[in-house]
């Protein structure tokens, strides 16, 4: 069984990694389509878990709204994003009342729009960032690379040196030592990009922090959600890996941190110039 699981993971990685890198390298709507597909699938899995917990989200409305949010990230409609979210919330609140559902169903629906489309969609702001030139490309690729390095280091060295459980009630297999190794791996990968002059030193620090610290916390949040819903995996889209939410939970947590820093940094540079 373990051998079969490993084989399935390797097969998925063989086509999945080139697909991710290729779409991100091409940029534009290629990347946007990729992120929209990931967010849509992860959001669907999220709604299934909410239903397993006895809630009844307006999944169809939420999924369409999620695609709209990702599209706004791509076209740069940052000014419209806040108004869109507010309008969606009011529209869903009205729909919930008209269908006789509870406020928990409203929160479950809206939660699916925020996580993953709104959080995951921020990846597009990173990819489209071009100051200096090509920073967005390498930062986007670096985000995935740092997450993968973090996961690998946390798992491998956590198994080897782990003695203190990190969050036994949520994820019994994770250890404090594994968490620290993950932070180290993510930071090492991030500063390797800086060493080769692909990103600046401040972006390397933020990237390492976002993927090593926040990314691993995002993984714990998703584990908590699955435990409450009684799910082993969020889905079965990726054999050996689980669902889209399993595979990209760290990205949904780390990307907004990097995107937020880029926005603040860009505004400061604009003021200075």
In the predicted model, the low-confidence regions spanning at least 5 consecutive residues are none
Give the termini separation.
Answer: 60 Å
Percentage beta strand: under 5%
- Percent helix among the residues? over 70%
How many distinct folded domains? 1
Shape: globular
* Class from secondary-structure proportions: mainly alpha
Biggest sheet, spatial arrangement of strands: 1-2
The count of strands amounts to 2
In N-to-C order, the SSE pattern is HHHHHHEEHHH
Radius of gyration (CA) equals 19 Å
Give me the number of helical elements.
9
**What summary fits the major beta sheet?**
2 strands, antiparallel
State mean pLDDT (0 to 100 scale): 89
Properties at a glance:
273 residues; mainly alpha; two-stranded antiparallel sheet; 9 helices; 3% strand
What is the topology?
Layout: H1 2-26, H2 28-52, H3 59-75, H4 78-98, H5 103-127, H6 135-161, E1 165-167, E2 171-175, H7 176-195, H8 201-229, H9 244-272
Antiparallel strand pairs: 1-2
Helix pairs in contact: 1-2, 2-3, 2-5, 2-9, 3-4, 3-5, 4-5, 5-6, 5-9, 6-7, 6-8, 7-8, 8-9
Question: What does this protein structure show overall?
Answer:
The chain has 273 residues and is mainly α. The protein has one domain (2-272). Helix content is 80%, strand content 3%. A two-stranded antiparallel sheet has the order 1-2. Strand 1 (165-167) and strand 2 form a beta hairpin. Helix 2 packs across helix 9 (244-272), helix 4 (78-98) packs antiparallel against helix 5 (103-127) and helix 8 packs antiparallel against helix 9 (244-272).
């Amino acid at each position: 069984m373990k051998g079969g699981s490993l084989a399935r993971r390797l097969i998925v990685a063989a086509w999945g990694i080139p697909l991710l890198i290729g779409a991100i390298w091409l940029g534009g709507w290629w990347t946007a389509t990729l992120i929209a597909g990931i967010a849509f699938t992860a959001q669907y899995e999220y709604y299934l878990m909410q239903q397993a917990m006895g809630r009844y989200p307006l999944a169809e409305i939420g999924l369409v709204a999620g695609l709209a949010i990702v599209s706004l990230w791509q076209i740069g409609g940052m000014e419209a994003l806040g108004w869109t979210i507010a309008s969606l919330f009011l529209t869903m609140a009205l729909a919930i009342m008209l269908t006789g559902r509870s406020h928990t169903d409203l929160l479950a629906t809206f939660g699916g729009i925020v996580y993953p489309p709104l959080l995951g969609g921020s990846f597009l702001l990173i990819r489209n960032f071009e100051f200096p030139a090509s920073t967005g490309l390498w930062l986007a690729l670096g985000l995935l690379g740092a997450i993968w390095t973090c996961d690998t280091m946390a798992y491998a060295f956590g198994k080897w040196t782990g003695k203190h459980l990190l969050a036994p009630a949520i994820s019994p297999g994770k250890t404090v030592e594994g968490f620290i190794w993950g932070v180290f791996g993510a930071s090492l990968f991030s500063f390797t990009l800086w060493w080769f002059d692909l990103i600046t030193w401040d972006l390397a620090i933020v990237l390492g922090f976002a993927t090593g610290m926040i990314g691993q916390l995002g993984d714990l949040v998703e584990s908590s959600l699955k435990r409450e819903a009684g799910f082993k995996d969020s889905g079965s889209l990726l054999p050996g890996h689980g669902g889209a939410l399993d595979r990209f939970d760290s990205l949904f947590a780390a990307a907004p941190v990097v995107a937020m820093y880029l926005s603040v940094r860009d505004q400061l540079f604009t003021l200075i110039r």
